[in-house]
Automatic annotation (TrEMBL):
Keywords noted in UniProt: CBS domain
Signal peptide: none
UniProt protein name: CBS domain-containing protein
UniProt entry tagged with the keyword Endoplasmic reticulum: no
Residue ranges annotated for the CBS domain, each copy included: 7-63, 72-131
SMART domains: CBS
Length: 147
């Protein structure tokens, strides 16, 4: 199964110069757990719910006084739409993130999250089962040819 089959294509973005409060408002309005941070339209990072909590706690300032550029996670961890979900999950694990921005070159196409992978677990299992069945079929056919 490929990333492009499960990713969310409706990206919520905010400018790197916005306040964390404004970015949080976008998250709440759109019912998402993160916003992609852009700098002149180019993806530059991601601000997650955890980043908001960490910034508020660490600075003890109101969210309206904290710039997104100080709170966002960067550099942005990305994946291509043609990558497999296995590749995406390995990348999430190795980078210690729960969300990957899906990019084609420098153009953001969507986002894939651990929740997207969990939601598609049944399809992933079916694909693995089908691949295993195909492999067994090939193996049995080659055994018959050798006999």
């Amino acid at each position: 199964m490929l990333v492009e089959e499960v990713m969310t294509t409706d990206l919520v973005t905010c400018d790197v110069d916005a306040a964390v409060r404004d970015a949080t408002e976008l998250m709440l309005q759109n019912r998402v757990g993160s916003v992609v941070v852009t700098d002149d339209g180019t993806p530059a990072g991601i601000l997650t719910e955890s980043d908001v909590l960490r910034a508020g706690y660490a600075t003890d300032d109101p969210l309206s006084a904290i710039p997104v550029r100080k709170a966002a996670s960067a550099p942005l961890v990305t994946v291509r739409p043609s990558a497999t979900l296995r590749t995406a999950t390995e990348r999430m694990r190795s980078e210690g993130v729960k969300k990957l921005v899906v990019v084609d070159g420098m153009t953001p196409e969507g986002i894939v999250t651990t929740q997207d992978i969990v939601d598609n677990y049944a399809g992933i299992r079916k694909e693995v089962r089908d691949l295993a069945t195909d492999a067994t079929g090939w193996s049995e056919r080659s055994d018959r040819l050798r006999d």
